Amino acid sequence: MKLKGTVFKYGDNVDTDVIIPARYLNTHNHQELAAHCLEDLDSSFVQRVKQGDIIVAGSNFGSGSSREHAPIAIKASGVGAVVAKSFARIFYRNAINIGLPIVECDAEINEADQIEIDFDNGKLHDITKNQTWDFAPFPDFLQQIIAAGGLLKSISGGKA
Fold it and tell me: How confident is the model at residue 69 (pLDDT cuts 50, 70, 90)?
């Protein structure tokens, strides 16, 4: 799988309370969650994000509570993938469970750069800078879960 998109750049320790503020956790509607994604960190994010854009962040992305709402809000907002130096353990698993592609890679990428991610071969290419980084691709079974749209869809034949 390959994905190309425009970068939204954030720093270290972007926690789940910033990804989707707790005041919106009373809904499970994915579009409602998407409408408030990152609003306390970047109030214009939801107006600017386009289908397939990519979030790039520093270390410990998704720290905080174990809420699955955070990766759901990101995915439902149209983000195609999240690249970070590291992910909080529970966010990492929740992202895979809901089918949000994530990449651990320490790459020097700037806001608004155009990047391409080759998930199969573990290559992240910054088209803007013509620079490439390697990352450890997921094993086939995790790639299949993400490609199916999440864990439940992968085991139910896409009906979840």
Answer: very high
Token output for 79: 């983000």
Mean pLDDT of 45-68: 95
CA dihedral 81, 116, 125, 15 (to 10 degrees): -20
List C-alpha distances in Å: 46 to 1, 75, 82.
25, 12, 15
Domain coordinates of the chain in residue numbers? 2-153
Q: Give the pLDDT confidence score for residue 160 in this predicted structure.
A: 64
Confidence of residue 67 (pLDDT cuts 50, 70, 90): confident
Question: Residues 12, 122: contact at Cβ < 8 Å?
Answer: no
Q: CA–CA separation, 106 vs 91, rounded Å? A: 18
2-153 is a CATH 3.30.70.100 domain:
no
